[in-house]
Each structure stands twice: as C-alpha cells, then as structure tokens.
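Instructor's aside before we start: the two examples that follow are unrelated to each other. I chose them only because their records fit on one page, so don't look for a connection. First example below.
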Amino acid sequence: MPTLLIADDHPLFRAALRGAAADAVARMSVLEAESLDGVLAALDAHDDVDLVLLDLHMPGNHGLAGLAAIRAQFPAVAVIVVSANDDPRVVRRALDHGAAGYLPKSAGLEELRDAIRSVLACEQWLPPALRATVARAQSSRHDAELAARLASLSPQQFRVLTLVAEGLLNKQIADRLDVQERTIKAHLSAIFDRLGVRNRTQASVILRELELSDPARQIEA
C-alpha cells in the first residue's frame, strides 16, 4: 500500500488533495504536513513514504529549497510540486532540481488523480497544457550545475547547509544536530568543497538562489 504525504498549509486544499488521492489509488495511506519542518519530520518518522505533494510556498519553504532538501535527505521519495505558479521556466527549474511532476493549483481533479497515478508508476508528469511550453523552456546550465552540486551533499551536510543559511553558528548547529562542534567544522569543509565556495556567506547564497516569489502574495499585494 503506497504512502502519500500532502504538504500544504491550507486545510481545504489538503482535503481536496486527499480526496483526489483516494480516488486515484484504492488503498493508500495519507499523511499531512503544513510546514517544511513538518514535512521533514514526517519523512524522518515514516520511512515508507512514496510520494510527497509539495506546496512551493508553505511556511519554511520559499521556492525550490524545500524540494532540494527533500531530494538531498530522502532521495528515494518522489515529489510532485504543487504551485499557483505555472511559469514554464519555474516548472523547468523544478524538474531540473528533481521533481517527478508539477501540478498547478488550478488543475482539475482528473489531473490530480492522473498525476498521482503516473508518478507512483515511476513516470514524470506534467499537465497537458504545459507540456509543449516546458519542453521549449531549456534547462539553464547554471541550474543544472547547481542541482548537481546540491545533490552531491550527504543528507547531514544538507541539514548543516540549511542551518548555516538560517544564520546559526557552528556551536548552535552542533547543539541542534546533537553532534560535536568539530563534526560541524568537518561538514562545512566538505560542503564548501562540493559547492565550490569559500565561506559561509557564499554557501548561504546557494540556497537563496532557489527562492521564488509567491504569485498568490503578489495578487494579494
């Protein structure tokens, strides 16, 4: 029986996704999370999750950073990005950073069901209306290289990088991860080497490059 994790901070939208999942697969276990921290905690606690439906702009996640975190720390888990942003360039970037599918929030229930079935069958999925334009949106060399460098990090190294980007000092990171401070220093040396950077500031910039503006917030403004 497959296990699905629905990651979105809007209860009504989570309910809609849960209903679509129930229609797509007869027997499926469904978990929910409303923040990126909740997603990572759920994946830590449940090693049988097969698929995550990930909102790009839930609390703690501002673009592709959450996708990169999941792919680095839980590479066996497939991710369908769910977003109000249907810009083909954004979709292309999500696929380059390891998404197995991309689902606009405007999608109908049949597309929701089709996306879930397809990705659980180990296929890549895009809505029919976006396939041609995304195919024309070529991957940028920079994004491809960035995705490869982030993918070279171990799960623990990616956690350290995330905490560095939050501004934590080595001792604070060591306390958070319950390890020795010298272990954090060793991780940082490896992170700098694999990302091709020289210091903490440059390493933090790498993650900030994955941030995206939220179309919903732009409309509200």
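Example two begins here.
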Amino acid sequence: MADDQLSKDLASLKIDRSASPKGRGGTILITLLVLGGLGAVAYFVVYPKAKSALSTPKVKTATVALVSPSQGSIQLTATGYVVAQVSAKVAAKVPGRIATLDVVEGQLIEKGQRVATLENVDHKSAIATAQARAAAARAKVQIARSNVAELKDKISRDKPLAERGVIASEPVREMEARIASLDAAVTAAQAEVAAADAEARSLQVQLGSYEIVSPISGTVVKKLVEVGEGVSPGFGTPGVIEVVDMTSLVVEVDVPEARLEQVGDPKKSPKSCEIILDAYASKRFPGHVLEIGRRVNRAKATVPVKIAFDGRPEEVLPEMAARVSFLDKAIDAKTIQEPPRLVIPAAAIVKRNGADVAFLVDDDRVRMRTIKVGGELAGNRILESTDIPQGTKVVLDPPADLVDGAKVKEQN
C-alpha cells in the first residue's frame, strides 16, 4: 500500500512536455520592441549629434564694425560721464514755505537773480512792530526833552526871585537836582530808540533772506520744490533749484593706473581726444585732456581724468554717458567730423571665382556673400557694400573647403 502511494507521488512530479509554455512569446516580443526603440533613438538622435560634433569645423569669428577716421591714432579708450565743474543747489538761508517760484527748468539765469521767495507776512509784521517800538521810544525822548526844557525855564524864572528873597530857595535847589535825573531819562530814551532802530534794521536785513537768489550764472536744470512746500537750510529739502554752468561741462573718465602714462601731461602738452556720446553715437567731438585727478581708486586701480570739449556743443548735457579715445596725434577738425565707416577684418576676405567674398555667420551656418571693399582703415578694410549691417559676425581665415550653407562652430 505504501509502495502504491509512493508511485503515485512520483508520477505527480513528472513534467508534461506536451503542454506549450504560457506567456513566453509575449515577453520576447516586448524585449525586441524595447531594443528596437533604443536602436532608433541612438541612430536618429545620438549618432547625428556625435557625427556633427566630430565633423563640424570650428572657426574664429569677428564682427563688422563702425570705425571713425581717427581710429588708427587711438592709444587708449575709457568710458565715463559728462559732469559740470560749476554747479549749485540753490537753497534758502532761513526756514519757510515757498511763496513763488520765479524760474522754469531750462531757463538761463544770471548770478544774483531772484529765483524764489518765501512767505514773509509774519516777518513783515515783526518789522512793523519793531518800527512802532522805535517810534514810541522817539516819543519818549521828546517828552523827556520837553520836561527838561520846561524845568529849565522854571528854574530860570524862580532862581532870581529866590536870590532876592522873594520866594524860598529850597524849591529852586530841588528843581536843579531834578535836571540831572531828567537828562539821564533823555539818554535812556535815546538808547531805547537806538535799540529799536537796530532791531528794525536787523529784521529788514533778514527780510532779504526771504528772497532766494542764485550764487552763479547758468541754466536751471531741475526744480527741487513746488510752491507751498517747506524748505530749511538745516533739514528737509536741501535746495530749491539746481543750476549748472553749461560752459563748464567736461567728461570725467576712469583711466587704469597702469596706463596713466598714455594720458600725457595736460600742463605741458594736452593730449588730443575724440569724444563719443552714447546719445549721439554717430557724432565725434574733439577734445583735450584738461586735468588728471589727484586721487587713486584702490578698489578699481583707476585715476579720474577730465576731458574738455574743444568748443562745447549745445547738445551735450550733464550725466550723459561718454566714451573718450586718447589719440597719439592731433586730428584736425575736418577729419574728426568725417562720418565713421563700416570696416571688415582683412582676414575675413577671401577670393571665390575671382570675387571678394566673406562668410557671414547666421546661427550655426555660414552664408557666403560677395562684397565690395575699399582702402584700409585702422588695420581693416573699408566695407563699401551697404547690405551688411554693423555687428554682423564673419569667419576669419575661412578654410578653402568652406561652402555656402555649411555648419560651423565658433571657437571660444
């Protein structure tokens, strides 16, 4: 019985090879699809990028620039701002409230001209009070003098009578003693008059402080307050208007300490300069070194240098950004007024089919363009073609096998 049971158990462990495995075909199919997808990604994405990185030539580039005729004489270039050497924030001498503003922005004013007034009703009342006290003091003087005169007249009448014994002499002696007291009263009243007059004059002088005048001649560039606002010389609004002497405008730039020698000595031989304002990039203004600052900025290792205009142009305003080029030789006014020219690096020009061409960089591809060039300027060639704008990138020393539309990579 035990043997039969053992045989049955062994039979149950036998593998049935006639039955097909379940689910194996589906697993193989999914695996093949995944491998196929990875292969497609590698072929269509990874391989083109790797091939492009290995086959795309690296090129050096430069830009088409706008260069002035004086560019070849430039030794050093620095940037800065237009500043005024003579300016003032016109403020009040006394605290008060603005009653009138007598100027407008942009107006030319002279030194000593009134620009505003403060409310002065209270001060005028104080002047009137002081003048009234002075008048009262003068009246007291007159009364004291009248008393003295009256007493003297009475003494002159009674004294002869007292000497003859007609009247008693004691009242006469009392009146003579009072004369000194009345004279002192007159002196005191006169002193009171002087004090009241001095107070009135002082208040009258202070009244002039309620008129605000300009300490310099110049142009009103900014109103700092409006009518009705309070001002004070010690706190609050620091001024009423800002005045700038436009004839004192200069350009102040920071020159590296290591290159200060190229600025020269303005006292012996002022170096010529070319000034370009950001607001008028197409214009060039002649100038010269006026002054080298007496301080060094240790943080930036620079020295401030002031550049004067050779004849200040009217369009120049304070705080304009400027670029100054220091020239190794003076440039005449005619040359400096010549318009700047577009130039292209000589290394960007090659021959193709007997014509001058340049390869312009457009994103990651190049476009071959036939160009027309002129003479040399500042180490470049004048670009006479007008269809290439300033700032266009061009390939330097383009390879002989470089063609229109080819992909390139810029060298860092």
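The chain has a mean pLDDT of 81.
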